[in-house]
Every structure is written in structure tokens, then in C-alpha cells.
Amino acid sequence: MSRRPVLLSTEPVHAQARNGWAQITLDLTGEESSAILFVTLHDGAGHSLSGNLYLHEAAKSGGAGGMRQKLVCFIPGAATELRLHAVGHAASALGKPRLTMRRLTRALASAKLLLKAPRGTLSGLLRHASLRPGLLRRQIRQMLATTAYEARIPRQDYATWITLFDQWDGETFPSSAAQPSIAYLVLARDPSSEALAATLRSLATQRGGVAHKVIDPASDRVFAEAMEGLDTDYVGILSAGEVLPSHATLLAADQLHRLGEPEVAIADDDEISPGGERHSPHFKPMPNHALMLSGTLARGLWLVRRSTFLRHAVAGAESAEELRTLVWLARYEDKPDPFSQRIPFVLSHRRPDTETASLEGLSRVVEQHLAKGGPAIAPEPNWPVTFNLRDRRAEERITVVIPSTLRQPHSLSCVRAVLEGTDHPGLDLHVVVMQPSELDAKQRGAAEELRRYPNAHVTWLEAARFNFSAANNHVAARTSSDHILLLNDDVSPIRADWLRWMAAFLRDPRVGVVGARLLYPDGRVQHGGVIMGLAGLCDHAHRYLPGSDPGYMHRAVLAQQLSAVTAACMLVRRSLYEQVGGLDESYPSAFNDVDFALRIGETGHSIVYVPQAELHHHELQTYGSHYAGDRQPFQEEEIRRMRQRWSKVCAADPFHNPNLGLTNGFEWRLAFPPRVGAEYG
């Protein structure tokens, strides 16, 4: 098995092909059917400008063993290099290709995509037909990009992924005295169950052999006593019914060593049918407090340093899931330094008869933790764990900053909806109009209407051109509230308690920024957090997902830590706003929020997405595209700066598993190949 793609070719992208649609034709030799081919586009600094652009449906090109592949794709203006990769069993046997590139008009590219994916293209055009022209063009470009991806996507089912990227042999893991030792603690309520027998059989197959103990969590024994005789560096916690592949212990030990031996490491897992078919992989983000409260990270193999386990594994857990959650939350309470990591490999398979935590038991563990501090929320015994607001009072003073032109009727109605549809009493709202001249008659009329509200203010800020960052910084410097809410003028509340939910999470002193869940007026998701690296740089997660769909691993509807959230609705602690110097005014319209959130993250504070705070976002209804008109020349430079400053998190967002994709609309599908594990190739 090799996770490392073979680089077949590197080709320059000519200037005339950039910033437009093109057809790339490849002629190559070899057995393509057992390899996956994909193209990546890069700028002059080597940064990737796209996800993997897959090729398939090869046609014979005449020569013996010859194949021809064609790809229709958009070439960004910054692209200077095209790289062709292959991964799979036959990747290294493919010959060097001959490549040609032909510029296409948008109409011709659309026609070619329509022939390849007629249903997707037509439904996309019809879905966006009612939008205003500027927004329609943007949505059609997005739809064409998605259609282009769908038209060439290879077979990407989990069975194929396992065949290509999850086959291991003993030679893969060089033995080393530096690697930590591991023993297993298996929690089982029924000592005669087939679930426990299956777990023990899997432990017996571990290469090199492992020690283990079985404990009934309902007994009076303390977990520390169960560790007597298991004198190893790490404790692997398992539930009866969770089975390990034979390579799990060797791969876990190697990963623990590579990760610097963290106190806790959480591995990916999947489910296995009675017939032995693996399915439903759970590719997890970096462990984080907000998501840990839901219980969704508590399944699968956990590895806990022995000293940490003995200190925090107190009595009271009645299942492996409760024990894992209890240990992690207790360690989180102990001290704030980072202590846990993710192992992005499938190290356990969950049988249908696996013993699980009771909803009441898991909720009780979370309740006991929250009683000591943190977000002002109270758990409900559901799967995943859900929450209510613990404290119905809202005492924080919050300055709401809304940059606006106050010329669009829609913006006025949205601002009024915020004032009238928000039940947080500490709201102090400031609308900022940023333009060279004073307010005109229409703007003055809108301002007078807003000033009828006792907590609303309208300010004219004289400036040559609009700058979202400067507008927010201006108000922040002249107010003194506890928190600052950055809000677009095309956002309106869906539920009145949206701001109290956001403020409830800022009660946790380790949280610095809170973002909301934003929906299009038709109920689909517009913003479910930001994923770094998505679409080559960053983009919204869950975009266009139906609002009733919980998403992959329920992540569209669960509070969780992320790398960034949008400033269309972003609540930030004032002290941190001032500490990092506010928004960067050299990003006047785009990327200022992502850059700001990432800088807050560098202070050690969490960026949390809170889906209970739900609002409508009438996207681009007021200002239009970030790079319309005289802003267009700045696009490539600002993208370049973002890639340069945040290259590390763009390459590996800790809250997006490297086994998941980075293409718009497909970010929760499998990555072909994964962005981790090449060291084992």
C-alpha cells in the first residue's frame, strides 16, 4: 500500500491560459484502470490553487496501451504550474504523458460540462435563475465548478478507499525502542457477550502481542486498580464490540512517537457489518472542548498516557464512552496547555452489538463538568448530546457594528429585524456609513428611522472608499462594551435568542470568538464555519446543505471549535479584539475575518461555531462581490498574502480531517489520496 502519489509530470501554465476555462488533453501509456489520476494547479511559490482535479473515462488514443484523457477546468490567474499525479497500485508504471492545453470560452466550457453532466448543470441553472444578475453570475460560476468536479470524479466509495489507502503489512512499521508501549483496558458489562469475545480475538491478533484487562464498569472497582500489572506507557481504552485491525497497535505506537507522545490521542474509526463489510468511517477533527461535549468524539480507540489516566480516571463512568469523555474533560479542567492529538488512521471497527453509553450517563458526565464553569449551557440526554441555555439572564454589554450604505431597502429591513428580533437586553447597535460625502436624502431618511430605537446609532465615516475592517475598528475604538459583534447588513435573525447563545459560549474564558450558523432564505446553509484549504484557500463548510440535514458526523448542527468563522456574524471578546489590533485594514473587504480569527487563535483562544445561533444571510445583497469594480485588481495580491501568511493552516486545517476532501461541496467526501501518511508509502 502507498498513500504517496507519484508525480508524473510538471508543466508550465502559459499566461494566455490563465484566468479562464481550458481543456487539458493528456496522452499517456500504462494501465490506468488500477490508478487514480489527478491534476493540481500551483502558483509561483508552489502553493496549491485547487483541490485535486480528477481525470477518468480514458479513451484509447491509437497506440498500444495508449490512453487519452480530457479535463475541462478553470485556470486561476495566479496559476503558473500544472502537476499531474497518479496514486494506486499501477501509479509508478504509467509513462510520462504528452500534454496540450486549449483555452475555452465560458459558453463552450458550459456546453462541454452540460454534455458530461446534463442533470447537474440544468438543475443548477434553474435553481439560480431567480437571482439578481451579479449574484447569478457568481452562483453560475460556482455551479459550473461543481459540475466540472462531478463530471470527472472517479469512483470514490469507501471500499475503494480501503483498497488503495488502508492496507498495511508488518514492514511498514520499523520497530524502535523510542516508541511507547501500549496495553488495553476493555470495558464490558456482559463478560459472556460475543461483542467482548470479538474484541479479545482482535487483541490476540496484534502484531508483537499486547497485554490487556477486562473490567465491568458497573462494579465497585476503581479504574486505577485495573491498571495494576499493565505497566505500559499508554492505556488503550476499548468498549466490548470495538475490534482492532492487526496493525492497530504498531501504527498507534508509531503515530504516538511522531506526535511527541501527547497525553491523549484519539483515532479515527468506522463501523463493520455482521458480514465483515466496513462502512461509515468517522474521520474526526482535532479534539476540542466544544465538540467533546456532544459525545461524538468518544467512540473508537483512545490512547491515554498512563500517568494521565491514573490521575483523571475517577470512578463513576459506566461505559468506555463515559470514561473517555470524563478523562478528557478532567484533564481540560486541570490546566489549559494543549494535551491531546488526533491519529488520522482507522484503528478500530465498531460492531453493531458494541456496548454504548446510556444517554443519561453521558449527559451526566457533561453536566458535572459544566457545573464547574465554561459555556453557560445545560446538556439534554440525546444522541448526540444537545443543550439548552443554562442562564436565561444576559448581562453582557455587546456593541453591534454594521457597516452599510443604507441605500438598499433590504439592508434597512435587516437592521430593523436585528433590533426588533433579538432578546438580548445589552445590545448597543452602531451602523457605519463609509463614503466620501455626507449622507444623501435617502440615507438620512433611513438613519432617522433607525435612530428612533434608543439603542441604535448611525455614523458617517468619511473615506475615499469602503473598508469593512476600518469601519469596525472605528466603532470598536470608540465604545467600551464587554464584547463586539461584527454583523453584515444583509443578515436577519431566525430565532430571538441567537445572541444569547453566542454570549453563552463566551462565558468560557478560553473562547475568544463565536460564529453563527447562517442560512440562505430558502433554508439551505450559507455558513457552517470556515475550512482552511477548502477550494485552494478557504471557504464555508456545509454550503448549500439543506438546513434540516445534520451533516457529516452531525457537524453542521453541533457547536465545535474551528480555525475561523465569518464576520457576517462574529462575536469577539473586546480584550482580544484590542490585543490583536482589530481587523487588518489592508484587507478592506475580503479575508479580513479569516485573518482576524486566525490571529485570535494564535493567542491560544478558541474560535467556536455555535449553530444554535441561527440567522438568515441574504448573501451579497448590498455590496455585491468583494472584488467588483475597482476592487478587482487587488484580488490576486490579497489571496497571495493570505496563502503566504497562513500557509501552514491552509495546508493542514486541524479541524478538517486529512482523510476528507477539499473541494467545494465535497468537503465531507473521502480524500483521494489522503493528505497524511505518505511517510508509510
From TrEMBL:
Domain of life: Bacteria
Pfam families per the UniProt record, alphabetical: Glyco_tranf_2_3
Name of the protein this chain belongs to: Glycosyltransferase, GT2 family
UniProt key word Transferase: yes
Protein's UniProt keywords contain Transferase: yes
An example Gene Ontology molecular-function term: transferase activity
InterPro entries: Nucleotide-diphossugar_trans (IPR029044)
Parts of the chain that traverse the membrane: none
Keyword field: Transferase
